[in-house]
Amino acid sequence: MVFKKKKIEVIGVSSDLGANIPGASLGPSWLRAASLHEILHAVGLETSDLGDLTVVDRGLVGKEHIADQYRLLLAELLQNLAERTYLSMKNNNKPLILGGDHSLSIGSVGGVQKYFIEQGKSLGLVWFDAHADMNRPESSPSGNLHGMPVSVLLGKGHEHFTDIIARSSFLLPENIVLIGLRDVDNKEQQILEKSGVLYFRMDDVFKLGIESIMSKTVNHLKEKVDAVHISFDMDAIDPLYAPGVSTPVPNGLMVKDALLALEMLSSAIDVQSMDLVELNPLKDQDQKTAQLAVDLIKSAIVEHPLGS
Q1: Rounded (5°) CA angle 110-103-112
Q2: Which terminus of the chain has fewer Cβ atoms in its 10 Å neighbourhood, N or C?
Q3: CATH fold of the domain at 2-301
Q4: Which of 229, 278, 284, 304 is catalytic?
Q5: Is 37 one of the annotated active-site residues of the chain?
């Protein structure tokens, strides 16, 4: 069963330093205010809140190009997150990381991957996002790190960030699945096609249906990995239902499809950890996106009999 009655350790990363758009740093507090803990307790899950990692306010740093100005700050933050996530796994808990922009997944996945390597196990990664997040410094139009984490996890990118992931434990491309893509840069598309990562664009979802997409995802991963980390970017959802995101893209996932996707995944493969990112309260409407985010978390981590 998913999470196997182990304590869920909530770790907040109140940072939007990996993006050039303010607001995602407020995500962790917004999710807590949307009754995250209370809703998880109501379905029988035990939680412990470790608070937020210390993050330097962007206003105190300056206004230089974010990829250069914040590189060292981000590297330190992501290393701290990797260590915190690793300790959560080592202490037999399940980390749930609240973002924050999507660059945080370098740290969250990095920490989980370190633990899995030590245990001689294989980790899968299922990435729900409107974007592929596979840019590299030389391909990125913006230079923002939140558009690069998948490449970093594969060992490609600036050494400040790839060094966080031990060179012996970069993720295998065949253990990664991207779902919901609909805004991919031209050079990034070339990287994606050569990467060996399995990906599904929204065109695939519309054509095949979410049940087929998730069946393909499960079949692709089930014999390769011992468990998965779910990384859910709120811009995977259509902005009609999730307006509170930093980079909205039309024609995204329907709410019912997103909930079903998470339920199908967690009933078929053990979910060991999760991050929920890119919730931007400055753009939300009546906590609509925050409340949906809590529902998505619940669908991903509530206990389901494996194979159901």
Answers
A1: 15
A2: C
A3: Arginase; Chain A (3.40.800)
A4: 278
A5: no
Active site residue 133: yes
Q: Which of 16, 133, 183, 188 is catalytic?
A: 133
Reply yes or no on whether 146 is catalytic.
yes
The mean pLDDT values, 10 residues at a time, for the chain of 308 residues are 71 93 96 98 97 81 57 92 98 98 98 96 99 93 91 94 84 98 96 98 99 99 98 99 98 99 97 98 98 98 70
204 labelled catalytic: no
Q: Catalytic residue at 131? A: yes
Roughly how many angstroms between the first and final C-alpha of the chain, as a whole number?
10
Is 129 part of the annotated catalytic residue set?
yes
* Cα 239 from Cα 256, distance rounded (Å): 14
- State if pTM tops 0.85: yes
Contact of 34 with 75, CB cutoff 8 Å: no
Q: Is 275 an active-site residue? A: no
Domain definitions of the chain by residue range: 2-301
